[in-house]
Specification:
The chain is an alpha/beta fold. Helices cover 27% and strands 15% of the residues. The longest helix has 21 residues. InterPro entries: SAM-dependent_MTases_sf.
């Protein structure tokens, strides 16, 4: 599935490539920040709410990445011990190859991953749902490059109890929407992803995180555009 066929577009919005896009949590945040977003994923993603191209993400970055204003990547985390391992299958570690591809583009970029992979990221910034008023903690880690950097936000104390992984969420508690979790509609509401199903929700980056990153990316791109 490819939509649209014109990968590189001109227009009033700066362009963002959302690589390893899954169902588009990260991409929607950049869209809300003001980017024109194109997602790419090796699997068809009929729920992806923005422009989408089905293809291998690293190859796509190497071929087309330099044509985008900003690049976001979320390489799969199954290789890392803290992430879900699916039936003992082997999974490649794509963090290093993704970084190499990003650096080859010469564009500003972000690479996101989960806690189990944080040690492989270089000086990552950690974002938590409590920083954005979400009723979940969902820590995610973001390495930056290509001349782009992010500040580390203060991390609020986790004062609200959190339900166990995938379990129903008691009133007044925060949810952990991982695995075969209960409460898909509740998770959609909490994370701000009404178009997603359970498969997309369990691994998604909340759009609130990337909307915040996107505002910083837009500010960084303005002087680059003037210099060009």
């Amino acid at each position: 599935m490819t939509q649209p066929t014109d990968i590189r577009r001109d227009g009033p919005r700066p362009t963002c490539l959302d690589a390893f896009s899954c169902q588009g949590g990260a991409g929607m945040g950049y869209h809300r920040a003001g980017f024109e977003v194109t997602g790419v994923d090796k699997d068809a993603q009929p729920r992806y709410p923005l422009g989408f191209h089905q293809g291998e993400a690293i190859a796509f970055i190497l071929t087309f990445g330099a044509g985008f204003g900003f690049i976001h990547t979320s390489p799969p985390c199954q290789h890392d011990s803290d992430c879900q391992r699916l039936r003992g299958n082997a999974h490649p570690d794509l963090i290093g190859p993704t970084r190499d591809a990003l650096n080859a583009t010469g564009r500003p970029w972000v690479m996101e991953n989960v806690r189990g992979a944080a040690g492989k990221l270089r000086n990552p910034v950690m974002l938590c749902g409590a920083m954005f008023g979400l009723a979940t903690y969902r820590h995610r880690y973001f390495e930056t490059g290509g001349g782009f950097a992010l500040p580390q936000l203060p991390h609020p104390e986790h004062t609200v109890p959190q339900a166990k992984m995938g379990r129903p969420v008691p009133p007044g508690w925060y949810g952990q929407y991982v695995g075969n979790f209960s409460g898909v509609q509740q998770a959609r509401d909490v994370l701000g992803v009404p178009w997603m199903n359970r498969d997309g929700i369990r691994e998604c980056v909340p759009p609130a995180y990337t909307a915040w990153i996107g505002t910083h990316a837009l500010a960084a791109l303005r002087p680059m555009a003037v210099a060009a």
